[in-house]
């Protein structure tokens, strides 16, 4: 098992961060929406969540980028609910219908430790933003009991900088998906006002915390750093060129970008003419050309199937 060679927050430090994060739940202002729900009283926010974390699954996942999945698999914790309402969400039973089971922070800590015992390369927190206080409580309990593998924060990037700062020393690897460069597309497809401004500020904060170079262990597994994901959408609605330019010029050419081509119309995408089809080879080639035009030199790419 790999041990990190830099300072991480202790259990007590994480508990203090959790206390500060809990103050953001009543009224809720954890995320950029600042919906104001009294979540400590179990009033549901825009994300559909109350006071306790709801988890759809915890399991070993082998479909992430190679330095994340490795041989042992990434120990994914899929949280129910989401602060985006993407009409094409491939995990909509979890994100929009909120399938899952309520767990206490202590139960969630035990799930994390079980994943470590099963050989997980890391703990991969998938869409955890709306449960940051409880996640911090869980990580505190898990670290007290021997959790030592890296923590990955897997996010849609619609995050509040103030909340992200509470995760410093708790998260080792940030894995944001910058979804749009166009605020209009973000509003139409995800009900996310000011997405570009908010997402780029969030990713800058992630970069500040963990740096841009992905630090790997001797086996090539991620210990610390940042990977920026970008899902290609039909008709270039995602704005790949602007996303690549942001990473290149405002973060670092050394930041690894993961270009994802797995979009397919699901959930409510068939109701939108622009989103009714998969992306085609020409669109993939155009995005790759824009990537090659940048100074970026570290890329993960998911092979695109035939049209």
Q: Give the mean pLDDT.
A: 94
Helix-strand makeup class: alpha/beta
CATH topology: TIM Barrel
| CATH top level class name | Alpha Beta
β content, as a range?
Answer: 15-25%
CA-based shape: globular
How many structural domains are formed by the residues? 1
Number of strands: 10
The secondary-structure element order is: HEHEHEHEHEHEHHEEHEHE
Number of helices in the DSSP assignment: 10
- Find the CATH superfamily: Aldolase class I
**Which architecture name does CATH use?**
Alpha-Beta Barrel
Distance between the termini: 42 Å
Characterize the largest beta sheet: strand count, sense, and whether it forms a barrel: 10 strands, mixed
Rg value: 18 Å
Q: Classify the helix fraction into a percent range.
A: 25-40%
Model regions low in confidence, pLDDT < 50 over at least 5 residues: 1-5
Give an overview of the whole structure:
With 307 residues, the protein is α/β, with parallel strands linked by helices. It has helices spanning 11-22, 66-69, 92-95, 105-117, 132-144, 161-165, 183-190, 195-210, 240-251, 281-293, and strands at 54-61, 74-79, 101-102, 123-126, 151-155, 173-176, 215-216, 222-231, 256-260, 299-301. It has one domain (11-301): TIM Barrel, CATH 3.20.20. Strands 1, 2, 3, 4, 5, 6, 7, 8, 9 and 10 form a ten-stranded mixed β-sheet that branches. The longest helix is centred in the middle third of the chain and has 16 residues, at 195-210. The model is unreliable at 1-5 (pLDDT under 50).
